[in-house]
Design brief:
The protein is built from 11 helices and 13 strands. The protein is α/β, with parallel strands linked by helices.
Amino acid sequence: MTAATRVHGHLIALAKPDKSLWTMILVAVVVLLLFFLMLRHFVRKHGGWRRCRRRAARELALTRQAFGEPLRAYRRHRRGVRTLARQLCDPRAGLLVRRSLDAAGAALAAVPGAFPYGLRTQPGWVAVQIAARRLPGPPAPWETEDGPGPQSWCLEAGHLDDAAVLPEALPRTGARVRPLPVAVGMADDACVHLDLAAGPRMITVEGDSAARTRLFQALAAQLDRSGSGASVTVTDGVHPHHRGERLDTVLRELEDSPPVEPEEAVTATTEVVVCAAPTREQARRLGALAASGTVVCLVDGPVPAHSWALRVDARGRVTAPELGLYADCAPLSRAVAAAVRADRRRSRRAPERHRTVEQAVEPRVRPEQRAPEPSGLSEEPTLPAPARTVTGSDLLSEPATARTRPAQASSHGDE
């Protein structure tokens, strides 16, 4: 009896929900009910549940893309650096660029006012951009590239493996001009090159201050590399760690130098003047020298003269609508730095390799052995010449003939 009473008393002592707990439950139910009613009103106001789901999915996709864009931009930048560095460090790639421009120039020799000025390269694919009032039909092995971009001819992978497929350019009358290609950035997965000697021979870099300086110095470094075909003069004010000559002094020397004879070899280097912020009078003198075909001018900042203008924004996008140029130049500076370091390593290894080859081909004659005296009745045999070793500098050399173009046609390159 006592145990039953103890159990009954224990059951009666259980805690019961107090008034505050019931109040919280009722408030939560009311809030949920009000939220459902407001959501239903919002959904009906915006066209129903299906349209709201689509809109919510689109907003989530945009949010995910906005948060993931920095990572994708970093990966795209790294991929561009690797691609451009591979293109600039390979001597055969540079030779292919110049050979392609030369071959396209030779194919356009019979078309008045038509000339190649740019090039896009991918593994196994090359497209040469052509300036012409009307794009002529391409000869074999060239093909017309289909697309909304600038008019161009392209070569597929099967023709790029055989260098003999690309014909060498035939000499034209007038001033002889070598192609002077430089890489300006990446367009999708293609390396974009521009021939600085194809147009008015004055190129200005404009736009954002930091991005413009990086692009300008990267272009100047490419021209100053060995095998580029350019003799570069960097004036004072271009780089804070380089004290060059004053621009007035350089202009005076160029104006006093004798004009280039048309009979000179086509492998002669092209004079390039790199300057920053010239005055109006200096810009006029630079324009006169560029129009005469004496020099190629690369200028940091706008100038009041006939020129090609490369405009760069803060994100590293370089554009030139009149040239059909739209590229990302942000990876270019690091790629050029890698190419310059590769050139230094190659130049340090070149003397050692040259001495090794000389020791291998040097004939070893014993001191007591003497060559027999040639008699009048015997004919002196002709010894074959030793085999020539092909090095990286030889791959950068130009063929016997190169593209030529009248200087008068180059002044109308942007038409």
